[in-house]
Specification:
By secondary structure, the chain is of the alpha/beta class. Helices cover 30% and strands 28% of the residues. The protein contains 11 helices and 16 strands. The protein has helices at 24-27, 40-43, 73-90, 124-131, 139-152, 186-193, 196-202, 210-220, 273-288, 303-311, 341-344; strands at 2-6, 34-38, 53-55, 64-66, 94-97, 106-110, 118-122, 135-138, 171-172, 176-179, 226-233, 236-247, 257-264, 293-299, 315-325, 331-340. The chain has an 8-stranded mixed sheet, with helices on both faces. A 4-stranded parallel sheet has the order 2-1-5-8. Helix 3 packs across helix 4 and helix 6 packs across helix 8. The radius of gyration is 23 Å and the shape is elongated. The mean pLDDT is 95.
Length: 349
């Protein structure tokens, strides 16, 4: 994976005080990934060392001052634009940036009073990268995610860097194994995806041929964080009974959010299997991917899906009338839910 990284985290002396702040978790990425060192402040024409700068967060319009009272907003904005161009040219979809920085801070920054006070917010470059669909984590967030991945799946590469379902860890619950789908699973996928009730409830056309299911397995389900659902049978597993995963939410422009999707074969209904699978995938998303929010929606008529969603702690947002055409072309109302990381951890309950 190509990953943009604050140059100071890689040992380059480009911080405001002319120092580097090497991060071992970032340095460890060198062996498996292509790292793009970036320093938006230098790219904007500022020197190292330079006077400390902070975003004036009490103002609605972006303004960056240095400790001497000089307005350096233009330099910060220019550096952010140059950084975005470099990140795009390198094909980076992920950036690891220095925490709390006025240009790289991700979620927490200084408030502009130069008193060491932190507030919720994003640095100038971090907010631009996020707006353009590039996932941003701070070095502190990266370390938390890597610790969680090692704890949950010590023998697997960190899920954060997966670029396909086959690169994701295998998830397990008491009764289920959730793993990437492969060519051998195509007949099982066809068995439930050719059921007209499954596709009609989930919002996709039923599979009419094995080729439909093959395309699903090799293209749609090959995306990262999508899993087939297999029931444990002693030391092995039974046939694929469904799928569950986290995908981009087309309704939100939020790089820290993924949308839950799932489908389950009829013969597996009524046993709580999907609730069990969803809970595991939610934990995976918040702990191993460092998500800030997981969303989900269902057609308003789909009460089975509603029960799963409510059991898993999602908060009702509302119903969008005539949100999209169903498989029969008729406009369908869609009910939306979300679950924030703080709510999931119990802090917001």
């Amino acid at each position: 994976m190509n990953i943009a990284v604050s140059a100071c985290l890689l040992g380059e002396p480009c911080r405001y005080d002319g120092m580097a702040v090497p991060c071992s978790a970032v340095d460890d990425l060198r062996s498996a990934h292509q790292l793009l060192p970036i320093c938006p402040e230098l790219a904007g024409g500022l020197d190292a060392p330079r006077p400390p700068c902070e975003i004036v967060t009490r103002e609605r319009a972006l303004r960056v001052l240095n400790v001497e009272g000089q307005d350096v907003t233009v330099a910060f904005m220019s550096g952010a634009q140059a950084t975005l161009a470099s990140v795009r040219a390198a094909g980076c979809k992920l950036a690891i940036l220095k925490a709390q920085s006025p240009t790289c801070g991700n979620g927490i920054i200084y408030d502009g009073t130069f008193t060491g006070t932190h507030v919720a917010g994003y640095g100038v470059a971090a907010r631009l990268l996020r707006e353009e669909g590039i996932r941003v984590l701070s070095d502190l967030q990266l370390q938390e995610v890597l610790v969680a991945s090692r704890r949950r799946h010590p023998d697997a590469p960190p899920a954060l860097f997966a670029e396909s379902s086959g690169e994701c860890p295998v998830l397990e619950t008491e009764r289920l194994v959730l793993r990437a789908l492969g060519p051998d699973d195509v007949p099982d996928v066809f068995a439930y995806c050719s059921d007209p009730d499954i596709g009609a409830d989930a919002g996709w056309p039923l599979h009419r041929t094995l080729e439909d299911s093959r395309l699903f397995v090799t293209q749609i389900a090959n995306a990262p964080h999508v899993f087939g659902i297999f029931e444990k049978r002693g030391e092995s597993t039974g046939p694929c009974r469904g799928s569950v995963g986290l995908i981009d939410d087309p309704h939100r422009k939020n790089v820290d959010c993924l949308m839950l999707g799932y489908a389950l074969a009829k013969e597996a209904w009524g046993r709580g299997l999907m609730t069990e699978a969803v809970r595991e995938v939610i934990s995976y998303g918040f702990e191993e991917l460092g998500l800030g929010m997981v969303t989900v929606n269902h057609y308003a008529f789909n009460q089975r899906s509603r029960r799963v969603i409510e059991k898993c702690g999602f908060r009702l947002e509302g119903t969008l009338r005539g949100a999209e055409p169903g498989p029969d072309g008729m406009p369908q109302d869609m009910t939306f839910y979300s679950l924030g990381a703080e709510e999931w951890r119990g802090e917001g309950l």
